[in-house]
Design a protein that fits this description.
The complex is a heterodimer of chains A (95) and B (488). Chain A has 95 residues and is of the alpha+beta class. Chain A is built from 3 helices and 3 strands. Chain A has a two-stranded antiparallel sheet. Chain B is α+β, with helices and mostly antiparallel strands and 488 residues long. Chain B folds into 3 domains: 20-305, no CATH class; 310-421, no CATH class; 430-487, Arc Repressor Mutant, subunit A. The chains are: A alpha+beta (95), B alpha+beta (488). At the A-B interface, strand 1, helix 3 and strand 3 of A face strand 3, helix 1, strand 10 and strand 17 of B. Strand 1 (62-63) of chain A pairs parallel with strand 3 (65-66) of chain B, so a sheet runs across the interface.
């Protein structure tokens, strides 16, 4: 498997991150070398091994159904570039 | 064709078409806290007042799953007679949207917590089994308000991270009516279980509707379209009617159906394309590295199973058996747990036939008129039982009972008190009744003569007059008996 410029453009669009042509060149090289490195795993025969979702043997720990009000809206909204009447404000997005 | 037979087909120019529908229902878990955070889930709170650093997707925050939500998913799965998976996996479903701060929704893709199950529908043409494909847990997104400003969208993250159960049906539904029954049944099962309040106005229950059409007799499925996020049964039915017709028209013109996502415009009563093909979502699912697999053992499931309440189907069967109800009567009662509880409160110790007639007759009509649910009924089951007992032991007639019932609607007073206060106790003293009857016969000697010469129909007139003379208090059965003797 290898990654070309179109794939990079597609991924950047999906993630809404703009990438310049210069960056695309660099990313293409970097990503391909990462993929080549990971592809070494293909040398192993895994035909008879069930896929796993996690390498640790741990299972999920669970919380009780209790409300703990740790953060107030002022603190949450402090990070918003724009806000109005306790709402986050973003450029208009309609699907 | 009678409605005892299934007959929902779209008639086109080339013949009849069958509609194939599958639903993805999103049901909000009735939990206090969110699926992976300890923020509250309360509906209608001040914007962004129930948002933790996890819900706002601040870097470095780690999700911890809410055990109660896991239990409710298992409970619901058991209610759907479904296979419970002791191992399931949470995946990231990646997409970019302003009300999804993580940039992905935590959902379950390959390994859901609940597998195949079923829901039984009671249709006029018989029972029908609808297959359940799966049920999985996932996070809800925040809420976007697009109508506050011409160039801006307002975002409220209170709903962000709330636990949803996505319940996916098999493509077994064939008409808008079946869809309505399916949603009602699913909602009723979840309400019995207490896992989801099913409140569609507040968005606790909504559905994506998959619709395709095919010629009658065809075994292959047509290309389907998905209508997103429909939040009422009526809209689901309208959307299906429109969408099926649209697809039939296209196919008959020799065109192809594009598999696409559509939205239902409730004002124009039409579906339309949501996004073009090149913008189609590419979710790039992968297991969430923050969350190891969800594992529990069979004893966890068994413990939940032991605590399951009686479910609608079982209750229906029991009501028919215990109270000798018709399938229809039992069906009406079980559709809402509060209704069947109310009925059973009365029927346990009072006359069953009167109980069913008063509950699904007069009480339903009265509640409908004042726009209240049975839970908010101004007449308690205890007082309606007393009213029924008064009829049963001949203290009052059915006619007087309706008068008393009208008074009870206003103040939920004890019917015994009303009856005594207003002097409405039924007159069953033969001597007293004879006096009234004699007076009526004396006042109507001409009619008596007519009756005796063969005009039998006048008997009803005499009964009516006696009851009227007694101000409605005369025991109608006794009046009948005495009149028959006097007139013979």
């Amino acid at each position: 498997m290898s990654i070309n410029k179109d794939t990079i453009k597609k991924i950047s669009k999906l993630a809404r991150i703009s990438v310049t042509n210069e960056e695309t060149d660099r990313l293409e090289k970097d990503l391909n070398s990462i993929i080549k490195f990971v592809e070494q795993l293909k040398e192993l025969n895994t035909d008879k091994i069930a896929p796993i979702a996690s390498v640790s043997d741990q299972a999920l720990t669970m919380n009780k159904d209790e409300i703990k009000k740790i953060n107030e809206k002022e603190e949450i909204l402090k990070n918003a570039p724009e806000k109005n009447s306790n709402y986050y404000i973003v450029p208009k997005v309609i699907e | 064709m009678s409605d005892k037979e299934f007959n929902y087909y779209i008639s086109g120019e080339t013949g009849k078409w069958e509609v194939v529908i599958g639903l993805e229902v999103h049901a909000q878990v009735s939990s206090n806290a969110k699926l992976f955070s300890t923020s509250a889930t309360k509906f209608g709170s001040e914007p962004n007042s129930q948002v933790s650093l996890i819900d706002a997707a601040m870097p470095g925050m780690l999700p911890v799953i809410n055990k109660f939500c896991v239990e409710q998913a298992v409970r619901t799965g058991l209610g759907l007679k479904a296979k419970i998976n002791l191992l399931s996996v949470f995946d990231r479903k990646n997409y970019f949207y302003a009300d999804l701060p993580q940039g992905y929704q935590i959902s379950q893709f390959k390994h859901p917590i609940v597998g195949e199950g079923e829901v039984i529908l009671d249709m006029p043409y018989g029972t029908k089994k609808i297959g359940i494909e799966r049920l999985h847990l996932e996070q809800d997104a925040g809420k976007s308000l697009h109508d506050q400003d011409p160039t801006k969208t307002f975002i409220d993250l209170n709903r962000s991270g709330v636990a949803l159960m996505e319940i996916v049906s098999k493509p077994d539904l064939r008409s808008p009516e079946e869809v309505a029954e399916y949603i009602k049944k699913l909602r009723s099962i979840m309400r019995y279980l207490g896992t989801c309040d099913g409140n569609m106005e507040e968005g606790s229950l909504r559905a994506d509707v998959n619709v395709s059409v095919r010629k009658i007799g065809s075994k292959d499925f047509g290309t389907r379209c998905e209508i997103k996020n429909v939040n009422s049964i009526k809209f689901m039915q309208q959307a299906i009617q429109f969408e099926a017709k649209r697809q039939v028209d296209l196919l008959e013109e020799g065109k192809k159906i594009d598999q696409e996502t559509r939205l239902f415009d409730t004002k124009k009563n039409e579906t339309r394309q949501m996004r073009s093909k090149e913008d189609a979502h590419d979710y790039r699912y992968f297991p969430d590295p923050d969350l190891p697999p969800l594992k529990f053992d069979q004893s966890f499931v068994d413990e939940i199973k032991q605590k399951l309440p009686e479910l609608p189907d079982d209750k229906k069967e029991r009501l028919i058996k215990d109270y000798k109800l018709s399938s229809y009567e039992a069906g009406v009662l079980i559709s809402d747990k509060d209704t069947s509880d109310y009925f059973e409160d009365i029927a346990k110790n009072s006359d069953v036939k009167l109980a069913i007639n008063w509950v699904i007759g007069d009480l339903f009509a009265a509640l409908n008129k004042i726009g209240k649910s049975i839970k908010e009924s101004p007449i308690s089951s205890k007082n309606l039982a007393k009213l029924i007992d008064l009829i049963k032991n001949n203290t009052i007639s059915g006619r007087i009972a309706k008068e008393v019932f009208e008074l009870m609607i206003n103040d939920n007073r004890d019917p015994k008190v009303i009856v005594e206060e207003k002097g409405l106790i039924q007159e069953s003293n033969v001597g007293e009744l004879e006096k009234i009857i004699e007076k009526v016969l004396k006042d109507n000697t001409d009619k008596v003569a007519e009756y005796k010469s063969g005009k039998d129909k006048l008997f009803g007139f005499f009964v009516g007059s006696v009851i009227k003379e007694s101000k409605g208090k005369a025991n109608p059965a006794l009046v009948n008996d005495i009149l028959k003797k006097k007139l013979s």
